[in-house]
Amino acid sequence: MDAIFLQLLNGLDKGSAYALIALGLTLIFGTLGVVNFAHGALFMLGGFCAVGVQMLLKLSTQVKDESIPGLEMMVDVPYLQVWFGDVGVQLISFAVPISVIVAIPLMLLVGVLMERGLIRHFYHRTHADQILVTFGLAIVLQELIKSFFGATPIPVPAPQMLTGSANIGEWLGMGAGVSYPWWRLVYFCFSMAVIAMVFAFLQFTTFGMVVRAGMRDRETVGLLGIHIERRFTIVFGIAVVVAGIAGAMYTPIVSPNYRIGMDFLVLSFVVVVVGGMGSLPGAVASGFLLGILQSFASMNEIKQLIPGIDQVIVYLVAVVILLTRPRGLLGRKGVMED
Amino acid sequence: MMNTLAKQDRWLLIGFTLALLAGPILLKPFGAGYPDLLQKFCIFGIFAVGYNILFGLTGYLSFGHAAFLGIGSYTAVWSFKLLTMNVLPAIILSVLMTGLFGLVIGFLCLRRSGIYFSILTLAFAQMAYNLAYSVLTPITNGETGLQLVKGDPHVLDRWFGVPLVEGIPSTNFFGISMVGYSGFYFCAVMLIISFYVAMRLTRSPFGLMLKAIKSNQNRLKYTGVNTRSYALIAFVISGCYAGLAGALLAVTDPLAGADRMHWSASGEVVLMTILGGVGTLLGPVIGAGVIKYLENIFSSFNEQILNGVFGFLPDAIQHPVVKFVGLFVGEGWELTLGVLFLVLIIFVPGGLMQGLQSVQRRIFPAQPNPAAESTRGAH
Q1: ipTM higher than 0.85?
Q2: Engineered SS bond to B235: which of A151, B22, B106, B327, CB 3.0-4.6 Å?
Q3: Cross-chain residue pair B131–A308, CB shorter than 8 Å
Q4: How far apart (Å, rounded) are the C-alpha atoms in residues A53 and A45?
Q5: Under an 8 A CB cutoff, do A273 and B111 touch?
Q6: Is pTM, for the whole model, over 0.90?
Q7: Do A273 and B335 touch (CB under 8 A)?
Q8: For B339, which of A140, A269, A315 is closest by C-beta distance?
Q9: CB of B341 within 8 Å of any CB in chain A?
Q10: A242: in domain
């Protein structure tokens, strides 16, 4: 029982990341009808926002080392520590949350530029062309990051106060064996909050209502005198922000390198298609579903039963679902079938 | 056999053959005139030509073709290990094996179209990749990769009394060793045969059916045609091409690793086909050549060479120029690929072949020739 609960928890953080990326992909697909292969690269870009913020906070100056008296030695001390003392040290350890705040306007800008500058010219092209142009863009973004930050993963630690593990087992009276890293818990709550915000935004605001109407029938909304394209641009920006902050928050869990986005993207596409193209709840649900299934499949008991299942479970589920339910779990008819 | 081809196709085939066989001389000035790279041009040319039969003609975008490449390689290496170091059985077995896999995977994947098809092929390829790394280690030798070792049985070689050599034997074609230029010419002949088959296929009624699937599958269905079986045959054929390419990879270097099946390898063949020109005959070969050239030549440039190239500039300008260009070569060759790819997709969606054709038309305005008009853009 404990083991099962633990695996459930372990699946949640990966599932959250899948859900966030898949949510953004679906938003873009539902509004603009574009399959965005650059979405993984945007996730990675968010991760490197955190790396950049950390580097910025850690900008150091040379100060004489006074810990060993009588020895002339210079050590690197971050400016923040020099200026603010212990508060500065705390501030540095909060690089990831700070980077989320930085990433929001930055990624919004990236998203709007990308849509206005490039994607806009591809609305009348075929789906294959859209996939390819975004794929090309992803390669370029990835290589640019590689040339600036190098190819090795760069660790970005979580804030000091959140580095340990939470004793969830004790809270729920399940025995002390069930513990879960604080940051993963934070990530899960964070992603739930983001997902809730996106849904609330679409459901309860006028802007969201117009966007939803536009997703249903773009032409009619246009005939009503609403400039739907501009709103869709903003939705694109929001989707990019979601991917970016998902990436920034994920850095303490997996140190980012330039390829992390692509690895996530491939799985996220599977997630989107399993959930049903164009269905937001489907994307979120299948993100968590596949994350949790993946974690269950990596349990030793199950691995002994069916060897190799942990490696293929996601793809196997995708194949089974696509062959039995042609449009995914919650997909609509006639989407992307031409 | 040649007389059945249209006149321009005959010239295309003859020109292609001559250009390919003269490859070592023609490509020497570009620094690509050595057999290792030329082999890669041919092998990935075959891969891309085969991929184009599926994607270019039927429009089904497979994102898992690298799986066939890997299966072909593994089969070939096993044939070397167990049967004989002769390449012919290895190639035949690989093609048969990938054909079999293609039949099963294609049968399942072709039940869906559009992006669902792409994801299904991707899923199968990733499963193959992940399994090759984990559970199938007895067959694939996991991360080390499958390779020849001392004491492999080579049953057929023993049977026919082929003299055994000390150490690890090299692959041969009835005694001709497949190392160096003979390896290249073997691959080149394979490419020419593949090219010829693809050409015949494209021009045949069957090829026309495949094109009809691409332009409007529904309408074709209404006329009572079972489109799925046509698409399945195309899938199997293009899988066999990938298997052949994989076998040749093993012929030139008898080692098969799972990374050949990674989805990025599948992405690469898509890039090759698009870069050269989807649906054209020559395009995929050119695309494969360009990408392999970038990968092997651009990546070998370093700052020293650049400083040599830009040595004529004043120092103040030379440094930033070298820094900037350095982004695109060496480690960053993929950036060049990405940018080239973006520019092509944005401005010349038909790939390099369309670019060449429009340049050609600009220079030699076409005479009104109805026969040429009807087949324009087909090669």
Answers
A1: no
A2: B106
A3: yes
A4: 12
A5: no
A6: no
A7: no
A8: A140
A9: yes
A10: yes
Specify if A75 maps to a domain.
Answer: no
Range of the domain at A54: 2-60+96-324
Task: Provide the residue count of chain B.
Answer: 379
Residue B152 is encoded by which pair of tokens?
A: 């492999």
The answer to the question of residue A127 being in a domain is: yes
d(CA A47, CA A99): 9
Q: What CA–CA distance (Å, rounded) separates B239 from A195?
A: 41
B346 close contact with A: CB closer than 8 A: yes
Query: Chunked in runs of 10, what are the mean pLDDT values of chain B (379 residues)?
Result: 69 88 82 84 94 92 91 92 88 95 94 84 89 84 82 78 73 80 90 93 92 90 91 95 94 85 87 87 91 83 73 75 75 81 83 84 68 45
Q: 3-state SS of B244-264?
A: HHHHHHHHHCCEECHHHHCHH
First-to-last CA distance in chain A? Answer: 46
Q: With an 8 Å Cβ cutoff, are A146 and B337 in contact?
A: no
A78-131: per-residue pLDDT in tens?
Answer: 777 778 777 778 888 888 888 999 999 999 999 999 999 888 888 888 777 888
B172 residue type, one letter: N
Tally A–B CB contacts below 8 A.
115
Question: CB-based contacts of B325: which residues, under 8 Å, 6+ apart?
Answer: B306, B310
- Listed in sequence order, the DSSP H helices in chain B are 7-21, 23-26, 35-52, 66-82, 87-109, 114-133, 137-140, 155-159, 181-203, 205-215, 217-222, 227-252, 263-276, 283-296, 303-309, 315-326, 333-347, 351-363, 370-375
Interface test with A, best of B52, B55, B116, B264 (most A CBs within 10 A): B116
Q: Do A336 and B116 touch (CB under 8 A)?
A: yes
Collect all residues from A whose CB is shorter than 8 A from any CB in B: 35, 118, 121, 125, 127-129, 131-133, 135-140, 142-144, 146-147, 151, 262, 266, 269-270, 273, 277, 307-308, 311-312, 315-316, 318-319, 322-323, 326, 336-338
Which residues fall within 8 angstroms of residue A312, CB to CB, at 6 or more apart? B126, B127, B130, B131
CATH number for the domain harbouring residue A291: 1.10.3470
Domains, chain B, in order of start with CATH, read 2-296+348-375 (1.10.3470)
Q: Is residue A337 part of a domain?
A: no
Q: B120 vs A137: CB contact, 8 Å cut-off?
A: no
